[in-house]
Amino acid sequence: MKHFKWSLLLVLLFVLIGLVACSNNETDSTPADNDDTSESAEETDTEEASGEVDLRVVTTMAGTDPAGEVFQEVLDEFVSEHPHVSIENDSQSADAGTIRTKVNTDFSSDNEPDMMFYFNTVDAEGLIEEGKVVNLEEAEGIDLSGFNSMLEQQRHSDGNIYAAPQSGFYEGLFVNKKLFEENGIELPTTWEQYEAAIEAFAETDIVPIAASTEDSYYVVEHYALAAGGMENYKAELADQNPTWAEGLDNIKKHADMGAFTPDAATIDLAMAQELFKQEQAAMIFEGSWFWGQLEEAGMGEDVTVLPMPVYADGGETGEIVGGASQGWFISTKSYEDEAKRDVVVDLFNYLTSEEIIVRIAEATGQPPAKGALEDLPAYLEAGHQLVSDAPAVALPINDRIYPEAFTHVRTSVPDIVSGNTTGEQVLEEAAAMEE
Amino acid sequence: MHSYTEDRLTFWERFQERYFTQSKIGKIFIYVILTLWSMTTIFPLAWVFLNSFKESREIITDTFKMPTDPTMQNYVNAFETVNIGKSYMNSFIISGSVVLLVLFIGGLAAFAMARMQFKLRGVLQALLIASLLIPAFATIVPVYRMMIQMDLVNTYLALIIPHTAGNLPFAILVISGYMATIPKELEEASVMDGCGRFKMFTRVFLPISLPSFATVGIFVFLWSYNDLFSSLVLVSHESVAPIVVLLSNVSSQYGTDYGLMTAAIAMTVIPVLIFYLVAQKTFEKGATSGAVKG
Amino acid sequence: MKGDKLYVFLFLTPAFVITGIFLYYPFVDNILQSFYKTDGFFNSTFIGLDNYVRLWSDEIAREALFNSLELMLYVTIFQVGIALVLAIMVNAITKGAGFYRTTFFFPIVISGAAIGLLFTLIYNYRNGLLNEILVNLGLERVLWLTEQSSLYMVAIPTIWNYVGFYFVILLTAIQKIPNDFYEAAALEGITGVQKMFKLTIPLIVSDLKTCIVLAITGTLKIFELVYIITRGGPGSSSEVLGTYMYQKAFEDTAMGYGATIAVVIVVLGLSLAFITNKLLQKEEVTY
After folding, report:
1. Which homologous superfamily does the CATH classification assign to the domain defined by A51-168+324-364?
2. Fold (topology level) of A169-322+381-434
3. Residue C41: which pLDDT band, with cuts at 50, 70 and 90?
4. Residue B146: closest C-alpha in chain A
5. Which residue out of C106, C167, C203 would a mutagenesis test of the B interface target, given it has the greatest number of B Cβ atoms within 10 Å?
6. Which tens digit of pLDDT belongs to each residue from C118-150?
7. In chain A, residues 226-285 whose CB comes closer than 8 Å to chain B
8. ipTM, 2 decimals?
9. Please, which residues have CB within 8 angstroms of residue A213's CB and are 6 or more apart in sequence?
10. What span, in angstroms and rounded, lies between the C-alpha atoms of C12 and B124?
């Protein structure tokens, strides 16, 4: 039948298109891959028999993250010393927001990477509870010596260590010294001076503090720290600690004094950073990663970082938010795979050796978890000093509380500022979310 | 409603008699409106291109001025940071396959939906409209799991298949909407000529509906080409990553590099514009052939 | 026609097999998720309808819902309206039609992220285009994105961004109208604007309907522009269902609750599309 021929043809064409698409990817993806990072599945099977090992590593060192390039070099060196090993570097920049989805789905679908450099925060909670990652202290051959205090910070609430740090970060009040000098205002080392600086700058054309009240991560943290000191800062959300509420209400108080731009509720962090970099704002709450941008803008020398002035009883100015929130994990699946274990352990020890840690940290300027950076510019040195002088360091609040609850707190700041709600009420609602 | 338009018509009729048909003022009026709108649409493209020759900082501070000191640095950076040629290839293989598959499978389905009578037609139509509403966020995790199981992650198919599935409902709805209004006589004539259904599709309906195929093709290409979210999850590896992934790699933990971003956008836009111009040719051809046959 | 059954089956099967496996099945999976409380990916507890109950009393969700509906109203009317006027105008001219057809398309080509950044820079308080103009004119700066205005400020780029899309669809439809229709009309003395109301619009009602359905469904899914320009703020004055769902599912890793919002988006859009279909059915004309 005529019609039938046509439909047959149709089905054939359909299959053909499918095949073409298939063969395209087979031919294109493998040879074009200069770093020979990806190997097709069939090859893996035959190669494993002859001792070949394929590893997949997921990190956030990608894109224009300066560590990305160094990291790839480091991997290449490892591969050239271990010819039977090939490593797929499946890194993805963290700010695209899909890395969490990808990692979680990978682990829940039996497709876990062999090693990963991932957030050892509330994000890894599920992985740890499910036993998907290795307890490093009990793993054979893993070398955890030589780390500074950042390693201890990785200890999970169950008492084990699942991740080894690469480098740390700190957050603080970045101030433009030049603007302070020009306007004859004292640098804020006490709460009174901080408030005085806000008042003084509010009278000029310079914005006192560049901030987004919607993306108010750092603002919320530092105001809570100022009002309660480290002891209260470390409180659980469920406590509904009154000093946190006081901190949130202080944001409103300062907003009313003119501390932020009128559009603080709709700008994002990047816009706030721009305000500071264009010298239109005198202060900003940021983290040590901000130095890269400041250097690029050519203003590293004009800026210094100060600890948030703490006014609470029992608190002490100098306490900072910081630590190491990312670390190297080994997945249980690949550790238990006899064919892979030795190589994975080798790779782990290699990547967490002092030499490699310092090399990667040099690219980013962050304080390393082992050893120290040399020949730092004075302003970076001052930041590292801030960390070593700190009487207490704690991770950001959003790293340890239920994400939905923290988002509620952070996105409610504009409402607190406009007087629609209060710090106390927001905390109550957030605590209810956590259950 | 009807009497209302009628009333307005009489007013318009007089108005139009006087100013539109009989004088050139009407034409001028039309051109003024069209030109004003086209200015608003040219503006962003010009903005992107001009800013791609500025430093990041200048983009924020003097975003609406001509570049004072034009620099190619952003383009140099884009080429150095990542392998842009490879990404172009990946984008074309992926989005091109998606367009072909969607047009072929969707065209057939649209033909059946528009010109054939069957019981489930209403249900299927509702299903198609419902699927327009499914956000990519809602399907990505299950799709990713399926791709892992089929061992397709980081191959072209990992993105081609879900994109095809995601764009088919749109294609079927638009093409069948277009086919629905093709005169009955044509169909009857072709039946008289002894055309089978498939021949009827390829000989009569496909050529007449070519403009709608071109329209759908353009948009499907665009959506597939610009979809960052699924690409990041399904084909993030450098060897298969399309150009949008490259574009997103341009932003880093050191903040967004707007200069690099505008350069990358400029580079992603150019092929799409070329594609549109080519498709538009097809679309004009189709339009005239339709008119001749109609 | 008789004997269609086999062909209906053959022609529809490939399309519905693909969408079935890679669109409907994942979405059903998503619907199932909405009955769970998911904390990350590993802890999910069945909670029945609790997510829906929670959604019902969630004030932000309610605001997002109303904002979405309001935005949908503006977007549908203006996007399709402006596109129709432009399409008829371009169809009426001969010289330069190609130019307009190309330029009207530009905004769609540029990714939402870039359009978002552009409008961010237009509205920005300190350095934005609008305020720079005001300052140059010796006027005070205006805060463009306030609780009252933010939704309109988001609606403008959204409308403008997609006018070209409906323009292309409608122009294709208008040009499909056989010439003899116009010739016959001309013989009866029907020209110009009258032609537009009596001939053009009735003849493209089915395409207009498609456009309206696409506009409704498209607006319910809006995410990128709103997310970049206002982040749903100030407060939640420009929060829409799309941004709220993204926030819940991906920022807060509450996949279950995010899935619930997605279900609501689909149900809502489907009912609206259904109503539109019913309302416009009577006016449909075939040649």
Report:
1. Periplasmic binding protein-like II (3.40.190.10)
2. D-Maltodextrin-Binding Protein; domain 2 (3.40.190)
3. low
4. A109
5. C106
6. 788 788 887 777 888 888 888 888 888 888 888
7. 270, 273-274, 277-278
8. 0.80
9. A219, A251, A255, A260, A264, A265, A413, A414, A417
10. 10
